Amino acid sequence: MKITINKEEAKFLVRIADTSLILGQRMAEMCSKGPYLEEDIAMSNASLDLFGRAEEMYKIISKIEGNQFSEDDYVFHRNEREYYNIKLVEQPNVDFAWTMVRQYFYDVYAKEVYTQLLQFENSEVKGLAEKVLKEIKYSHSKSKNWLYRLGLGTEESNNRLQIAVDHLLKYVSELFNWDDLDKKYFINCDQIETQWNTEIDSVFEEINIKRKEVPPLSMRDCRDGFHSEHMGHLLSIMQYLPRAYPDAKW
Amino acid sequence: MEKGDKVWEVFIQKKSGLAFKHVGNVHAYDKKMAIHNARDLYTRRGEGRALWVVPTEAIVSVPLDDSDAFFDPADDKVYRHATFYEIPKGVKHL
Questions:
Q1: Which of A23, A29, A182, B10 has the most Cβ atoms closer than 10 angstroms to its Cβ?
Q2: What is the pLDDT at residue B2?
Q3: Which of B32, B41, B44 sits opposite A38 (nearest CB)?
Q4: DSSP states of A94-163 as a string?
Q5: Hey, are the CB atoms on B40 and A41 less than 8 Å from each other?
């Protein structure tokens, strides 16, 4: 099955859906691996929120595309190069600091992205954004709280947070490589970047974390379907069952 | 969890005006973490609109050894129930 996405609006929205989905998959990996029971359950729930967010968006995309493919088709039958999520969210759960930094970086970005979607022309997207923003607001307060705990905790927690930040920052500049599609559908691309930088810089200052200069990565852009080395492995696990057993039903 | 954590009792109010009900407990290091954990564990299915967390150590209970002295004297005093009183005429909805 070759999945195609033709309409411009759908091409734009699939980036947002893919980003939710892949982060959801990463969070789901934390199920049974949390530092303690409460956080373990919280992360699994955060993952379900992200899957739900993605599923609703794929439904909208499917409708825009004339119902050629279902949301499951988009999730399970596209190859790596047909995914358009930001590389940030495919980065692995090396330790809890990585998981939380990745989440926090995403939450700050997503908050502004979905705020702008509130003014999207398609009313279903608008409705979804309204719902999702409440989830993001909570998730953001939680991930931010964890950054303060780790940054201001012990020398060890601060060190590990800094390592996670140093690595994940490499994947941030890509968020703001706006192309024509972004410029067409976002209200104000620059504002997403400015908001992100302002919040991150002020939080880093408070939690004794340095924002080091990041040399540009020699990797091509997610908007053209390029990914880091982790993406293929992630997909192979996520897509294994429906690909091995195409008739499997829930 | 390791040192520094406490157990917090969680109470949920279904809607404004109703009593808060005890639903369970969570581990957490401080108030903020306790309320986050309580929210994530106990309010996923529309259980309520308000949450309390209280450190378990702040709850005072009757020592187990004393329970006979505290509660047994009430066992044979059924007359303390209001059922022995005649309901005056004219009282409705009782």
A1: A23
A2: 57
A3: B41
A4: SSHHHHHHHHHHHHHHHHHHHHHHTT-SSHHHHHHHHHHHHHHHHHHHHHHHHHHHHHTS-HHHHHHHHH
A5: yes
Number of Cβ pairs < 8 A linking chain A and chain B: 25
Q: Which residues from B are below 8 Å from A142, CB to CB?
A: 36
Grouped pLDDT means (10 residues each) for chain B, 94 residues: 81 94 95 95 92 95 87 86 81 78
Determine, for residues A42 and B44 on separate chains, whether the beta-carbon distance falls below 8 Å.
no
CB contact under 8 A, B27 and A37: yes
Which residue from A219, A141, A26 is spatially nearest to B33, judged by alpha carbons?
Answer: A141
CATH topology of domain B6-84: Ubiquitin-like (UB roll) (3.10.20)
Nearest to A38 among B27, B32, B44 (CB): B27
The span from the CA of A145 to the CA of A142, in Å, is 5
B26 strand-pairing partners: B8
Tell me if B37 and A38 make a contact (CB, 8 A cut-off): yes
Instruction: Establish how many alpha carbons lie within 13 A of residue A194's alpha carbon, considering only the half-sphere containing its beta carbon.
Output: 4
Distances (CA, A) of A78 to A50, A71, A180, B14: 19, 11, 24, 44
A39/B44 Cβ within 8 A: no
Pair B38, A138: CB distance under 8 Å: no
Nearest-5° angle of CA A103, CA A107, CA A112? Answer: 160
| Distance separating alpha carbons of residues A107 and A65, to the nearest angstrom | 28
| Regions in chain A scoring below 70 on pLDDT | none
Measured between alpha carbons, how far is residue B29 from residues A57, A112, B5 in Å? 37, 31, 4
Alpha carbon of B94: minimum distance to chain A alpha carbons (Å): 44
Q: Please report the domains of chain A, with CATH numbers, ordered by start residue.
A: 8-244 (1.20.1260.10)
Rounded to two decimals, the ipTM of the complex is: 0.79
Res B92: pLDDT = 82
